[in-house]
Design a protein that fits this description.
The complex is a heterodimer. Chain A is an all-beta fold. Chain A has strands at 3-7, 10-13, 19-26, 32-38, 44-52, 55-58, 65-70, 73-78, 87-94, 103-104, 108-112. Helices cover 0% and strands 57% of the residues of chain A. Chain B contains no helices and eleven strands. In chain B, a hairpin with a 2-residue loop joins strand 6 (54-58) and strand 7. Classes of the chains: A mainly beta, B mainly beta.
Chain lengths: 113, 111
């Protein structure tokens, strides 16, 4: 069976500090990978998606970047965090050719102070 | 106009009630329709999945899609306190890489 791991669960960072969130998927190969952000009481905003190693598409101009160094690894980064980067970050994956079902990780609650 | 509109609630019902959750959308290209359940501080979990129009039933849950009206619904029968969560509708077009989510409706089921 497939599983998705996302860490850390909670992170408190000062403004201007760097960020690295990691997500890995097990039990599948060549998945589509996604990073979403969810602000309090709001829906999910797509930040990045990737269809393969080294292939990143950005949906929203922002202070964040993403990388996919391995087939089942997806990393969200920032060089200098802003207060507005606070939120709940979710990694997700999807089978190729299995409709549009997304499967999410457990999320990272990021607070920038 | 947002692509997907969903009433954020909160919606509070007594245990055993029938719950109706709804979303409207504007993009006629959407073919895949999903409902996710999200408990506080957790990742969303896929609850119901429907392709094109029609109904789908799974236990106490029924999903309906009316493409002519661009309207989807989730019904929960015999609601339980454990159903208290945020319910997100989501949809996508064929071959697209992006899934669009509604804002989510917070549901409280009182014992």
């Amino acid at each position: 069976s497939q599983t998705i791991h996302q860490w850390p669960a909670t992170l408190v960072q000062p403004v201007g500090s760097p960020l690295s969130l990691e997500c890995t998927v097990e039990g599948t190969s060549n998945p589509n990978l996604y990073w979403y952000r969810q602000a309090a009481g709001r829906g999910l905003q797509l930040l990045f998606y990737s269809v393969g190693i080294g292939q990143i598409s950005s949906e929203v101009p922002q202070n964040l970047s993403a990388s996919r160094p391995q087939d089942r690894q997806f990393i969200l980064s920032s060089k200098k965090l802003l207060l507005s980067d606070s939120g709940f970050y979710l990694c997700a994956w999807r089978f190729h050719g299995d409709g549009e079902k997304l499967f999410f990780g457990s999320g990272t609650q990021l607070s920038v102070l | 106009q947002k692509e997907v509109e969903q009433d954020p609630g909160p919606l509070s019902v007594p245990e055993g009630a029938i719950v109706s959750l709804n979303c409207t959308y504007s993009n006629s290209a959407f073919q895949y329709f999903m409902w996710y359940r999200q408990y506080s501080r957790k990742g969303p979990e896929l609850l119901m999945y429907t392709y094109s129009s029609g109904n789908k039933e799974d236990g106490r849950f029924t999903a309906q899609v009316d493409k002519s009206s661009k309207y989807i619904s989730l019904f929960i029968r015999d609601s339980q306190p454990s159903d208290s969560a945020t319910y997100l509708c989501a949809m996508s077009d064929t071959g697209g890489f992006k899934t669009i989510f509604g804002a989510g409706t917070r549901l409280f089921v009182k014992a």
